[in-house]
Design a protein that fits this description.
Blueprint lengths: L1 H14 L3 E7 L28 E6 L4 E2 L7 E10 L6 H16 L5 H15 L2 E9 L4 E10 L5 E6 L7 E2 L5 H10 L1
Antiparallel strand pairs: 1-2, 2-4, 3-4, 4-5, 5-6, 6-7, 6-8
Length: 185
Amino acid sequence: MIVFALAAVSATQALAEDWVVYSASDAKGERGRALRDWYELNKLEPLPKDGAAALHYYDRDSVASNSPFPGGTVKVWEKMVYQGEKKTYEEAREDVEKEERARLKRKLDVFDMARLFPVVVNRTVKEVTTFYEINCDTGEFFILEVNTYDKTGFRMTREVVSDKYLWSAVQPGTIMEILSRKLCE
């Protein structure tokens, strides 16, 4: 019995994430009728943590470099956590449905709900996790995967990118530059 308990604790620790705060920004939680901009970190300017709309973390345990020396590529999970209270996905979906029924003065169909999905996600997103590959030699990055979660941890969206031609240059003075510098040291 004790061996089983120790094995369970060891397995839990092996899966534990080690999120480290590296910056803060004025990223806002609601974006309207479109899903999030994947390249938002490459546009956001860093701010002091006090009073920032979002805190930015990277998972120290996920950092994987293709070289033991400076340079090469690094893969890492990053997350942006929005400050302030958010509704759950279900609460926001009910609110949006009610608003849209009142606006249209009719019952909503499946096409209406598909059109409203990004609105619900944007109102409820509490956390966005992104899996990046950063090329330290060229100063470019590529997004491999993006997930959005509500305040309960319910994953609302998952987007995986397979087109390896979507590399972007890291913009100076942005959150992405801070992350790149930290990981490429």
